[in-house]
Fold these 2 entries.
Entry 1:
Amino acid sequence: MLKRTILATVAAVATWFGASAPAQAGATLDAIKARGTLVCGIHTGIAGFALPDARGTWQGLDVDMCRGLAVALFNDASKVRFQPLSSSTRFTALNSGEIDVLFRTSTHTMMRDVTLGLRAITAYFYDGHGFMVKANGGVTKASEMGGATICLVSGTTNELVTADYFRTQNLPFTPILFERTDQAIAALQAGRCDSFGTDASQLAAARSSMPTPADWTILPERFSKEPYGPYVRRGDDEWFDLVRWYVNALFEAEERGVTSANVEQMVKQTTNPDTRRLLGVTPELGQALKISPAWVVNVVRAVGNYSEIYERHMGPKTSIGLARGVNELWTKGGLHYPLPMR
């Protein structure tokens, strides 16, 4: 009896210590620093988020989120390697260690967060599922698409959202699945399907790349919540914290009026305690994350605050032409509410 009690006590203590100790704490950050390069998973190609320009240089909102994170780590936007990934391979690539972080139009869902061995962090872009159809096709709402053939990208939430909608409406439809977005767009233009179903921002991006964008219309209804955010592997709280607070800092910089044009002046002149902390005048934020106290200054100087990134790649002056809407700060009626950085 005494022996069993001792063994039970030892097991309980071991379990307590095992539960208290972080799994592989710091392993990702240490590996990135040793390698000298961040490896970032991005889309295989969609305007506004991740697409090579005429010189072959990746551009887009997700791309700049990756570049900014490299700056936070190394103060060098070139120290990032982009890994284009399809919808069906993105999470496997992250879980296997092929990439360090995923910034790839990836919706946060409960099942992804709790079953894949990954962690969804914080939303940086809010979207919703929609449908695009020919402008002269006579379809003005989704309920008029009974019997339609719908192009979809495999491995996305859009598969489930589309199936759920047509089932609840008791409407037949035929899905055609593709590995990549560009394949679905090509099939739509070739007449292989009547509609393309995906998130509205990606529909706008797809339309902007077509020879005659006016030939296509995006139906006004939205059928889901699609909050995009970065994913990291489970078990490394230090890396999770760094990516989380990096994204938050982009919103915080916007809220405090810190831009790429004035950040140097703000460092020298601001008397606001919160802004001084954010900009590393007092060094505790960088120290807590084990990076340079000037990490936010470096990031904003290199890629701008969230507003600058958004407007550069998605805003009304771009070919995509999306107003901020729900992607505005909370002070302007949007959903982005930066957490206190203190």
Note: Residues 2-20 form the longest helix (19 residues).
Entry 2:
Amino acid sequence: MADDPCVFPLKCAVQNYVWGKLGNQSEVARLSQSGNPDFKLQQDVPYAELWMGTHPNGPSKIYLEGMEEKDLGEWISEHPERLGKETNDYFKGELPFLFKVLSVRTSLSIQAHPNKIHAELLNRENPNLYKDANHKPELAIALTPFQGLCGFHVIQDVAKYLQDIQEFRTVVGTENAIKLITASRAIDMASHRSVMKNAFEAMMMRDKETLQKEVRKWVSKVMDMEEQGEDISQYNGEVLLKLHREFPGDVGCFAVYFLNHITLQPGQAMFLDANLPHAYLSGDCMECMACSDNVVRAGLTVKYVDVQTLCKMLDYTGRQPQKAIFAAIQDTEDPYAAIFKPPVNDFAVIRIMLPGDVAQYQLRPLQNASICIVISGKAEGTTRSLANPLKLQPGSVFFMSANEIVTLKLEVGSMLLFRAHPNL
């Protein structure tokens, strides 16, 4: 083996948050059991996130025979040139992204992330809550059908819900409801955003007693409709009942009448830019994000909520649900690769789908370092810096230094892998 390998496997941390899928129902657990020899699966434990990167709360560790097992971040600090010149210069010797697999059983909080300038302000004013000064854009790519809330409905849809649902009207307030319904009949985006903000803010600030009473009244009606065989999809009934089961009486139950409900099919993605309200509801996905813990929450959570900050920062532009789907760009030089390239410098993600008739495939050199994970399929990976090939199978994670090539010799069958890298 070379003294200084530039490609090596990683052992990655698993986070057992309560919202994760249990036992072997979790893609996180399935991949960890296959790819990490230290992982011991327990059926009654939630496995929520697999972390690939240098985040101090779960750093990946180098896992290669004959090489000292150390944190990836520590190795990068000793070999900053391996990140590539652009990453090293732009991100000051740090890996700028955290790559994840998520397995979601119960809903995550209604939340948004600040932009860079706002993050710096929040961190300065309240460092105990907002612990860093970075933004936190996120990209979610579905591995299984993946449900979430993302962005505001077009105003006409919110107006119809206000007209049809007395309980929703009550928590928004009659005056706000009338103004929103009236504004929905004209084409004035600035007015639309203004009345949407006022209505949403009024709901989020509504006293807990009124809110819980109205949520329970409306949920009871929807349950009666369902029992009588009526169509509850017009009221987003299934999502409403799920949220109420998980967070009874929570303001997030009525948020379904403000926010678009999205179902991503495997391979589809959504990009969560700054100030975009969202919540993950269920399913498994790949996620890539900038290295930050800045989350502003306002519902569907037992964690600290900061309603005033959230309501001030949100983008209240109404969008059709399909606008939330973020398309990959097909690689013109590689028929098997497509890249999710969001408008941020911190990360991009390449999805590589190899059919069963491909015997050999080359992971091309990039000018910046990358992290790869195998989701399905098996292969041997050879590289100039390793004497022995990498044994790759589902759950295998490996780091590729800048300008390195890995040649995959595939076993029989197809293969799916994802590769995250700085978007420079």
Note: The first strand starts at residue 7 and ends at 11.
